[in-house]
Each structure stands twice: as structure tokens, then as C-alpha cells.
Amino acid sequence: MGGIAGLTRPDLFIERMRIGGEWMAASGGGTVPVEDPATGETIGTVPAGDAADARAAIDAAAAAYGPWRRRTAGERAAILERWHDLILANVADLGRIMTAEQGKPTAEAEGEIRYAATFVKWFAEEGRRIGGYDVPAPTADRRVLALKEPVGVCAAITPWNFPAAMITRKCAPALAAGCTVVVKPSELTPFSAIALVELARQAGVPDGVLNIVTGLPADIGAELTASETVRKISFTGSTRVGALLMEQSAPTLKRLSFELGGNAPFIVFDDADLDMAVAGAMMSKFRNAGQTCVCANRILVQAGIHDRFVERLGAAVRALTVADGRRAGATIGPLINAAATAKVAGHLADALAKGASVAAAADFAHDETRFSRPVLLTGATTDMRLATEETFGPIAPVFRFEEEAEAIAIANATPFGLASYFYTDNLHRAWRVAEALDFGMVGLNTGTVAMEMAPFGGIKQSGLGREGGRAGIEEYLETKAFHWGGL
Ligand code: NAD
């Protein structure tokens, strides 16, 4: 039992955490099993790391910091370029590991690996362009400069829905900036993260620069947040845990970057291109079985296009294939666990009880504790749970609206502010609506907003800071004012 079938490089499947230059068991000796969400079988175990292990990893990162920081930007970039190339050389194996622990279909898993690699490449390049500036001084005998320096030892805490991309989106800019890192991946999907750390080692990332601690989230999190050595926490996950980490980080006043939950509106106006809108809705709603923070949670459709849109989207929903992610042709894999399928079922039942109707559904004959049936709902209203909470599953609720202002009001009526999407061919409306949407990201006539060159992040309770793009490396840099007098 256990293991992952079909790996060309079985050495990438590692049941250990890495601290300093060592692959380690937990100091307490315990392990945590990792399940395949499609079958419930145990794939393997990882060390049940605790506060002592987190402390050892922080110490290793602190010891490695000085030498890593003193490397030239070009040397760090060359190592990151090698890491990028190794990730791409192992797409199939990394994809297999991901599907085994996370469930997403093979094509999507491989897509995520390639996406994860783009951050390594981008930040390898960005690291060479870090630059401060000088400003005219108040007197002739003085110079005033703003220098950019790495923040120091950073911690990265990541979720299960993007087990590879969330690692590289944090670690690549940190390493490029000259920081060292302790990663704590989700206990549900640690093997993708561990494999990436092994490839980083092979690429030449020195011992202690990139550490990974698996195990008990609350214990490790408490240590990472309490530590005075850790200068920054980058977290992606739920708003609940983000708020907790913020509270725990207050006594040491850490820098924080948080990518938290969303409740994305997806608005289709009467003048939208129907083909584009349907394709965008499928991509935004059903990627990763609906388990994405930027996923269309509320589909708002104007009355004049409503019936045509529902008919077309319904046909696309019926064409989805729910299956084990390893099966050829699978488009919707299992959800991450039974709690996830129960939440989705709860949202569906609540919506149906409050008057929504099923307009279309995909074929489904699966274990309902592991898989959820993709469903298109019409007649969704703002009093339903799926209007106010992230569903994180393959339910597409359509809300009908009449006026632009009404759609904007519904869209913005959420404490979250991560992604938003709208479809229109009207130029005036395009700018007006883009400005009116209270979100960190707006997609016009597209269902995708995540890519390495663009700033990704939220406002309101969706988070702090940005990842990716030029902004992504700034999160790992401090600005030091250097005043030089007496010239
Ligand atoms: P989660 O908050 O339960 O867990 C995220 C990480 O935090 C995991 O590594 C977990 O082990 C860890 N964690 C849990 N309790 C902790 C504690 N007390 N101290 C320290 N760490 C702790 O979230 P999840 O269920 O893994 O991920 C889903 C959530 O993530 C959704 O809300 C989704 O919207 C959000 N998300 C946001 C983005 C974004 O970029 N904004 C991207 C992906 C996911």
C-alpha cells in the first residue's frame, strides 16, 4: 500500500521534511498520513513536525541568511533558472504527485506545474532588477539614498488547492530577493511541496535557504508567528486562519502578506459576447472542481441574455466528466475531502430550499463523500448561503438582474474583495464597471486573472499585499534610507 504509481523519478516522492541540509523525521517521531482524495487510500506519511521542528527550521534559515544575502543577484538568478528548468523537466512526475494528493485531473495538475514554474522564471529575472533610488539632498555635502534590502527569514504557509503554485509564488520572490524561507505546506498536500524543495536542492539552492516543515499546523504556526527571527509571514488560505496569524504576529510586528478567501462575482451584461462569456464562466467556475479562491462564486446575468446564457452554459456543464483525475478525459476530479463535499451539498440544499432550480447537471455516479456533481442553478438570490460564502465546489448559481447599478451593488455586497469578472462589448460600460468593482482583480471578457507578470491579491477581507508581477518581490524587500553627510 502507499506510494504513487508510474513515477519516472520515484526519488521525488519523499516522506521527510527538510531542515538545513537534512531530510528529517519529526523530532517527536510521529507521522501524519496523506490520503488520495479520489480513493481514500493512504499515499504515504509525512513527519508530524511540531514547534521544536519549526524552531530548528527557523534556526537553519537564520544561519543560511547571511551567505545567501551576500550572493550576487545574478548568482541567485542562475540557481532559480535551474530550478525552473528542473520543474519543467519533471512536469509529468510532479503532476502525478499532485493528482494523487489533491485530486485535480492530470492535465490540470500538469498545467499547474507549468504555471508554478513561471513564477520561478519571472522572479529569477525580477531579482536582477531590484533597485533603490537616490533623491536630491537638502545640502551640497549630503547624499540621500533609498536602498533595497531583503526582509530576512520568511515563513510561507500554503493551502491545498494549488499545492505547487502557492509554493513558488512565495518562495521564488523570497529567494530572488535574498531572503531565506521556512515553508509549511498544507497537511493535505505536502508531497508536491516537498518534491519542489528537492528540485530546488538539485538546482543548487544552498542548505538552509529553503526549509520545509510538515505536520501540526497550529503548533508550527504558533512558533513561526512568535519567533523574533522570522520577519515576515506570507500566507495563503482561509480568512479565519489569516486573522489568527495576524493576531499571533502582532507582538513581533511582522510583515504580512495574506491571500485569503474570495466571493467572486461573474457578471454577464446583455451586450456580452455569448461564446466568450460561456467559455470564461466554465474556466472560472469549474477549474479545480470549483476549489479556487478566484472562482466565480456568483454568476450575475442580465435579463436580456439570461435564457440564452443559461442554455449554453447548461450544455457545457452537462459535458463535464466527473472522474478520478487519472482517468483519461476527466474534467472534474474529487473534492479535497468529505468536509468539502458536505459544505457543497449544504449550499445546494439551502439554495433549492430557498427557491433555486437545477437548470443542468453533469452525469454523476460517484461516492458523494468524495465527489460533487457539477450543477447549474437558476433563480439564485442573495439570501442563499452560496451568495455570502465561498462554495468551493462545482455549483454554478445564476442570479438574474435588470440594471447595471443593481449588478454592481450585488457584486460589491460582500466583505471579500479578491477577483471579479464581467463581460460586455460596450466600451463606456467597460471602464465604468471596472472602476466600480471593489476587488483587487477585475477580468473584462476573460475568466482568468492569475499569471506571473500581474499583481495578484485582494482588498477588504481577502488579504494584504500582492503576489506576482513587479509588486511580488517588493513584499520581500525593505527600504533602508542611507543618509551620507560631511562630503
Ligand atoms: P486553511 O486556512 O485551512 O489552511 C491554509 C494553511 O494554513 C494550511 O497550510 C494549514 O495547515 C494552515 N493552518 C491552518 N491552521 C493554522 C494555524 N492555526 N496556524 C498556522 N497555520 C495554520 O485554508 P485551506 O482550506 O487550505 O485553503 C482554502 C482557502 O484558501 C480558501 O478560503 C481559499 O479561498 C483560500 N485561498 C486563497 C488564495 C488567494 O490567493 N487569495 C489562493 C488559494 C486559496
TrEMBL record:
<dbReference type="InterPro" id="IPR016160">
    <property type="entry name" value="Ald_DH_CS_CYS"/>
</dbReference>
<protein>
    <submittedName>
        <fullName>NAD-dependent succinate-semialdehyde dehydrogenase</fullName>
    </submittedName>
</protein>
<dbReference type="InterPro" id="IPR016162">
    <property type="entry name" value="Ald_DH_N"/>
</dbReference>
<dbReference type="InterPro" id="IPR029510">
    <property type="entry name" value="Ald_DH_CS_GLU"/>
</dbReference>
<comment type="similarity">
    <text>Belongs to the aldehyde dehydrogenase family.</text>
</comment>
<feature type="domain" description="Aldehyde dehydrogenase">
    <location>
        <begin position="23"/>
        <end position="481"/>
    </location>
</feature>
<dbReference type="GO" id="GO:0004777">
    <property type="term" value="F:succinate-semialdehyde dehydrogenase (NAD+) activity"/>
</dbReference>
<dbReference type="InterPro" id="IPR016163">
    <property type="entry name" value="Ald_DH_C"/>
</dbReference>
<dbReference type="InterPro" id="IPR050740">
    <property type="entry name" value="Aldehyde_DH_Superfamily"/>
</dbReference>
<feature type="active site">
    <location>
        <position position="259"/>
    </location>
</feature>
<keyword id="KW-0558">Oxidation</keyword>
<dbReference type="InterPro" id="IPR016161">
    <property type="entry name" value="Ald_DH/histidinol_DH"/>
</dbReference>
<dbReference type="Pfam" id="PF00171">
    <property type="entry name" value="Aldedh"/>
</dbReference>
<dbReference type="GO" id="GO:0009450">
    <property type="term" value="P:gamma-aminobutyric acid catabolic process"/>
</dbReference>
<dbReference type="InterPro" id="IPR015590">
    <property type="entry name" value="Aldehyde_DH_dom"/>
</dbReference>
<keyword id="KW-0560">Oxidoreductase</keyword>
